[in-house]
Amino acid sequence: MEIYKGAGYECYLVGGSCRDLLLGETPYDFDFATNCPLSESRKLFKRVIAIGATHGTLIIPFQGFHFEITRFRKDVKTDGRKAVIEYSDSIEEDQERRDLRLNALAYDVLEDRVVDSQNGISDFRDKLIRFVGNAEDRIKEDHLRALRYGRLISKLLPMGFSFDPGEMKAVIRVFDSRFLSIERVYDEFGKILAPGPKDNRFLIDYLPELNIFKQFFGDPQNTKAVIEAIVETGNMLPLAFQYHKTHTIKETVYALKLSKENSRLVSLLNEFSEQDLSNETVLKKLLSQAEYIDENALLIAINDLVGVDVSRRALDIMKQKQPYRIKDLALQGNDLREIGIAGRNIGLTLNYLLGLVWDKPQLNSTDQLLKLADEFAKEL
Prior knowledge:
Blueprint: H1 2-6, E1 11-14, H2 16-22, E2 31-34, H3 38-44, E3 57-62, E4 65-71, E5 73-78, E6 83-87, H4 91-96, E7 106-108, E8 113-115, H5 120-126, E9 128-129, H6 135-141, H7 145-156, E10 162-163, H8 165-174, H9 182-192, H10 200-210, H11 214-217, H12 220-233, H13 237-244, H14 249-256, H15 260-272, H16 280-288, H17 295-306, H18 311-319, H19 333-338, H20 344-359, H21 366-377
Parallel strand pairs: 2-4, 9-10
Antiparallel strand pairs: 1-2, 1-7, 3-4, 5-6, 7-8
Helix pairs in contact: 6-8, 7-9, 7-10, 10-12, 12-13, 13-15, 20-21
């Protein structure tokens, strides 16, 4: 801020970082707004990252931090997804385009001065969460604001804050999930689930009212169940699990940016969700395919997503060292080669033997498996 002011420009700490400071919290991100043109910002700092430059935003790496600096803006036109903006020379005009009054504060750190054109300080003192201007207009400008609104309410309710019931009804009335991609929803849910106090009961009641996943799942009951599962488990796997039911795993991985492990986990759970996991053989088959998945995460996911608690039985299988993977068999590929089985037939034979051992663990001895393998080879 000293650098900007020294060059003759205004610069303010803005948005959620101001709100967090009021709450006595250390902000996760420090965002700034300035009337400095982007071209001048590039001259003022040794290194500037131009991500977001088309929207007036630059990332400035400075003394070990990455600060987001945005030029004052005003909306010219919005379509529910994104806004056409013009640059402004007024911090007050920039504040008018913010979503909530608590998020519309601007703080001059050097002068210890707050610019509060939208009465955010008054709302803070009254412990009230309200929109800048008309709630319906704010949501129609960007429907993702309905999720951000719910996220802030959930965070602040445990601190004694409240909201305007009329505004909430307006948000629910005008919100339309068709304006949001699954990627934007997924990202916002990640922020909703971020560590820290939150009112889960409020989220479970409010989010289904928006019917967020209408265009992805169709059935509102699915939406409600998925939201409850996300909030209660604190992770996004329920969304990926449900999304994969109507999309390929490739589409699911791409849309939700799943890690390799979560991709395998979701694919595996969907494969087995319609099978009888009370059957010991089916359970062993499931466990056998989880070689590259954390077993604890798998068991938790089966309970949370499939709705079957197999933890005790699965742990018994592992503890008793019952054979459920190929590497648990009493013979391996080299043993099969010695009796003349080669090439792809080795894999086919091992999988065949594993299936037999799932049903009858007592067959898992080298002599018995060699005999069974020899018989199976004659049929290949």
